[in-house]
Structures are given as structure tokens and as C-alpha cells.
Design goal:
Blueprint (H helix, E strand, L loop, with lengths): L2 E5 L2 E4 L4 E8 L9 E6 L6 E6 L5 E3 L8 E6 L4 E6 L8 E7 L11 E2 L3 E6 L1
Parallel strand pairs: 2-11
Antiparallel strand pairs: 1-3, 3-8, 4-5, 4-9, 5-6, 7-8, 9-10, 9-11
Length: 122
């Protein structure tokens, strides 16, 4: 069974940093899939932040995180990371990683982790 598990969330002050991890298990061909980071703030819709492709190229969908957040992956560890710097109170949210396990060398997000909470205080 394919699963994603996030970790690394916590409480920090404005300007602080956190690194989130998303560990995948059950994949036969992990390196052939794309992975995403999303976040959902209270009372708001879940929003895509960034995607990392199977060729390690990246896309930052949310302009508010460009230059502050970096998505990366370590295929040897089946793990995707989100390095978050210069955190702001508006970054407070539950953070989720997502992916899928369908056609290799394709991208999609129908598989989700349980989320990890990030709280930024001023």
C-alpha cells in the first residue's frame, strides 16, 4: 500500500525556518513520479504551493512562497522536502504532501499524507 507521511512541522516565530519532510512508502518506482506540497489555513481552501517533477525540475505555484520556500527530493530516501525560510504569520496552516502512483513519468495528486501543522507567531 502506497502511503505518504509528513513530519517536521512546529511553532516558530516570524523570520524563522522549518524543514518539512514527506516520506513515501510502497512505491515500486518512486523516482518516476511528481510530488506536491499544499497547505490549508483555517477556513480556507487547500492551496498548491510547489511541485517537484521526476526530473527534479520545480514549479512554485503560489507566488507568496517564491524565494522563501524550496522543494527538493531525495530518491534514495523516498522523501520530498519543503525548506521554509523567513516564515510569516500568514504561513500558518496545515501542510500536506501529495502525489500519485499511476502511470510512471506523469504527475497528479490523488494520494495525500495526514498533514503537519506549522504555526508562525509574530
Amino acid at each position: 500500500q502506497v502511503q505518504l507521511a509528513e513530519s517536521g512541522g512546529g511553532s516558530v516565530q516570524t523570520g524563522g525556518s522549518l524543514r518539512l519532510s514527506c516520506a513515501a512508502s510502497g512505491y515500486a518506482y518512486y523516482s518516476t513520479h511528481c510530488f506536491y506540497w499544499f497547505r490549508q489555513a483555517p477556513g480556507k481552501e487547500r492551496k498548491e504551493l510547489a511541485r517537484i517533477n521526476y526530473d527534479n525540475s520545480t514549479t512554485y505555484t503560489d507566488s507568496s512562497v517564491k524565494g522563501r520556500f524550496t522543494i527538493s527530493r531525495d530518491n534514495a530516501k523516498n522523501t520530498v522536502y519543503l525548506q521554509m525560510n523567513d516564515l510569516k504569520p500568514e504561513d500558518t496552516a496545515m501542510y500536506y504532501c501529495a502525489g500519485w502512483n499511476h502511470i510512471p513519468y506523469s504527475c497528479g495528486s490523488d494520494l495525500w499524507g495526514q498533514g503537519t501543522q506549522v504555526t508562525v507567531s509574530s
